[in-house]
Amino acid sequence: MSKEVAAAFDAIRKVKGVRATLTALGTQIEADSINDVINAVKDAHAAAKRAGALRVISSIRIDERLDKAQTLQDKVNSVEHQLRE
After folding, report:
1. So what's the pLDDT on residue 39?
2. Are 17 and 32 in contact (CB under 8 A)?
3. 8 A C-beta contact, residue 24 and residue 7
4. What's the topology of domain 2-84?
């Protein structure tokens, strides 16, 4: 599946306004607009199909913070800060 995953990730990172991080168990997507996130998922599905996937499954969890700006790296930094204390 690495060929299909690579195609999907490449499609995601080409979506304007989207920041993507590839991990061993999935891809993390950040954007200022939920529409950009949905478009990235759509593009990933299309790319995986073009790469030869016979089935494409996405599990999506959306964390839309409304009270303040917070990136995925901010969350990691917070945990690392706790580890230093």
Report:
1. 97
2. yes
3. no
4. Alpha-Beta Plaits (3.30.70)
In the chain, what are the domain boundaries? 2-84
Q: Compute the C-alpha angle 16/61/43, nearest 5°.
A: 35
Q: 30, 12 in Cβ contact below 8 A?
A: no
**Reported pTM:** 0.86
Q: What is the pLDDT of residue 18?
A: 97
Question: Which residues fall within 8 angstroms of residue 83, CB to CB, at 6 or more apart?
Answer: none
Which residues, 6+ apart, have CB-to-CB distance to 52 below 8 Å? 3, 4
- pLDDT tens-digit series, residues 20-46: 999 999 999 999 999 999 999 999 999
Three-state DSSP state, 50:
helix
State how far Cα 45 lies from the chain centre: 13
